[in-house]
Amino acid sequence: MTVKTLLLAGGTLLVSASAASASGFQVNLGGQKNIGMGGVGVGLSLDQAAMFYNPGALAMVRENGVQVGVNAALGRVSYRSENGGELRSLDNSVVTPFNVYASFGPAEGKFKFGVGVYTPYGSKLKYAEGWEGRYALTEIDLEAVYVQPTFSYAITPQLSVGAGLMILAHGSVNLQKDLPLPTGPGHVTLDGKTKTHFGYNAGIFFKPSDKLSAGVSYRSQIDATVESGSVTFSGLPTGASAAIINRGFTADKFSATLPLPAVASAGIGINPTEKLTIGVDASLTFWSAYRTLDFQFSGNNGNAGAATDANTGLVGGNTTSTSKRYYQDALAFRLGGQYQVSDKLAVRAGAAYDFSAVRAGYVGPETPDADRAIGTAGLSYQVTDHLGVDASFMFEAFRKQTQTQQDLLNNGTTDRVAGTYRTNVYIPGIGLHYKF
Amino acid sequence: MKLFIKRSAPVLGLLGLGLAGCQPDIEAPSVSAGTANFARYISVGNSLTIGVTDGGLYREGQLNSYPNILAGQFRLAGGGDFVQPLYSEAQANGSGYLRLTGFTAAGLPVTAPVTTNLGVRGGTPQIPLYTKYLDPINNLGVDGIRMSSITIPDFGNFSSTSNAANFNANFERITPAGSSQTYLDRVKATVASINPTFFTEWLGSNDVLGYATAGGAASSITPTATFTTNTGLILDALIAGGAKGMVSTIPDVANIPFFTTVGPTFKATLTANNAAGLVALTGAAAGGVTSGNRKQIATIDIRDAAGNGRQLFTLTSSPFLGLFNRPTGAPWRYLLAQANQPKAALGPYLASFGIDTLQAFGTTAANPIPSAFILDDVEQGQVLTATTAFNTALTTAATNRGLAVFDANTFFRSVAVSGYATNAVNNTAGYLSGNLFGLDGVHPTPRGYAVIANEMLKVINAKYGSTFQGVNPNSFRGVVFPQ
Questions:
Q1: Quick one: closest CA in A to B73, which residue?
Q2: Which domains does chain A have, with CATH numbers?
Q3: What are B345-372's pLDDT values in tens digits?
Q4: C-alpha to C-alpha distance for A284 and B55, rounded to whole angstroms
């Protein structure tokens, strides 16, 4: 397993998470063992997934190894309009966030190198045909794949530190909505890939005894920028109204920036017995960086005729669009345990509570966020001395979130819909690990 | 490893599908009637109540009338059938209406009257008679009726002496031949036969609107005393059987696209051409150049989109303002035809106003802009005073009888100022593109009526403790554009 192969894997597997598994469009699915334990990991040194949870703990992971995991995230979003009508749901799609980690280093040495590939942010939703919010959003596909070379160093047998260079190796966005044209609904698709961006994560891990460990970690914000994304219209009139309507839809390019926010976490690990490991994490995601979603439109798709500055780059007659997000920093608390049933079998369970990044009155269909309760279970089976299988299952129940048209009016957020959202997410996952 | 992910994903997907088969449920909120009873609902009013849109009454508009939308909601809480005097499928175009056929090179809308599949059975060009509908009905809306009209006998009985003031062809349509019944009598008879448990009442707009849309050159404003008396009569008739109900105030007409569309463009044109102002007729009085019926209007005094300036131009003036500062008789010929006068009447008419069509239009006192094209500041003052007085009368009468009040005036003013967003669509009071007003610039579109119905339901909920949710306005159309 080389770094090159890993990079290749990250580049070719265009996968994403659905109805993100943590607040906002964050995906907290770093490793199968951790997922089974409610998503804890900052105060633990379980395996190579430490690169994601706390790079400082990597040096304390005894064996070198490679591990790969994949999840199937199935979001079930329901919506009911303020104006009655039937229960709306998503067209169900399965998406597969994944992670791959490899670590290298001398068996009894003080340091470890590692490379991780993972999907920390993403969202994929497609609403039912003709739903009430069609003019806000019909579908979204947001993908972000980070590749992270990591170095971790044990300063003392009790204290280790680590840091990773986060590379946004692949990022893409596809946003679609219907247009309320007087000739009937049209459709617009924004599709673009992000530039390559860099960030870092870092962590400190402290293990004063066999029974206790603790860690803190931080992942920096990356502003994912799309330049020259494509703008495509369909359903524009072709006859008598074409001239008067289509002159407002001339753009063929867009640019936008989406913050992938910073996360600060702290965790504690306890080993009351040799067989039992308990982890507790708290993390804060700095979603307040996400104030507005702004698009700049440009170009001429031909509808402008003789192009001038004034008649090009228009979507609905405007060269820009801005939409309030006003997200809030979101806390999450996680608790999980692992019990080593035998040499070969370990079982896990956990729970978590994530607070919403999106305030009531600001909820948009692209991120129908709400406070959520999470329950998890998992197990590992060591097939041979080297090879093991990990499985996990996560269930998330979102609190029912209602916003009225009056809320939207008060907040200046009438570009989305009033009503009630309720979401469940089911995330089975499986992984393989191989110890050198 | 790639293989592992590729092989695992479908398996996990299937597993997940099995586990995740169930969609989270959001219970439908219960719809209840509160302290009111919606079993038998009747509606009383004018063109707004019967569903006029795009300058005519036709089947689609009727089906999307706000009372019909309300009745659909009432049915969720014990409401019964709601019968409207629908035009048949074969005569679906009813009285005829305007449709948008396209746009000029300059982007101005081109409209054409719909003249097929009409529900017209005869009459004269001045007073067409419509296909009768004599079954019992719940929607008693009558296009063109004023509050001042409700006590006029023979209001639906066509005769040689019928005219616009004492006869209404839309009332004739729903009135048996030969009946001298007044509108008030018809309402009383309906209350007696249907025994309604709930009603809506929205009369009064025509008591100012006719005068306003004629630019103060025709029609008249109803005296407040008459309006107040008749309001009491109609409401007493409606509550006679113990029904609860809702009364609507009338909107200030100065905010409708009929008056707000043309002026801003014309002002911009005049400003661009450095034209300081224009001369217009005001009022209805005949008289020559020096008789005092001419009014000088400075360009800066024309109301623009930002609300600066006072003078309002009617939608009907639009085709003629391009003739500004050129000799023309076209506007006068148009107005005469609108008044159903023969061509021979043109000469005497022009003479009585001292008009010389060889003079430049709008820039000379001898060929002023017709009074019918401008609702000037003085006329606006009269309209506003009357609107305020009428709304006071309506609100007082409703409150005294313990009825709910929908303040349509406040609502439409807020729409004019800030629009009305519905499920991520921003609707405005703008002509054509605003979605809420039809091609006549006065009457709402089906979307507009849906929005009105939703606002009324809020008022009804607040007054009677009911829990109606309303409809999704986006499923109702705005102005129909050709593809």
A1: A84
A2: 3-426 (2.40.160.60)
A3: 999 999 999 999 999 999 999 999 999 9
A4: 60
